[in-house]
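Write out this protein's structure.
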Amino acid sequence: MDKRVWEQPITMVQKFEANEYVAACYRIRCRTPNGNAYYNYIYEDTNGNGQWDRQDKPIYRGKFRGCNQWHRGVILDEPPTANGFVTTGTNPNRNRSSAVFYWYENLGHQYEDIHVMTPGNENYESNPNAS
């Protein structure tokens, strides 16, 4: 003889607590300033003063402009900020420079995979919280 014991049904509810930190997804278009104009040098803002000067380290030499492709990524803390400069010459007193955000991304090209964009031109993805 099988004895079955009746148990009262129980419903469990879990409270959802939002994470305090939300990362933003960006689309960044790799373009140099002035309509993707050609430049001859990319410098790192080595001393972090926001101005191109003789203390800044050259990281690329040769005719250069952006690949004009959109790159997707997650930038955890804040939008991209200028970390370098593109220039047409090597003399900060004579040649103009434009501030850029640069990054390395290996796309399999035969040249160094350095990409640049002008800070402020990034686009949020349609779902900025999808990280």
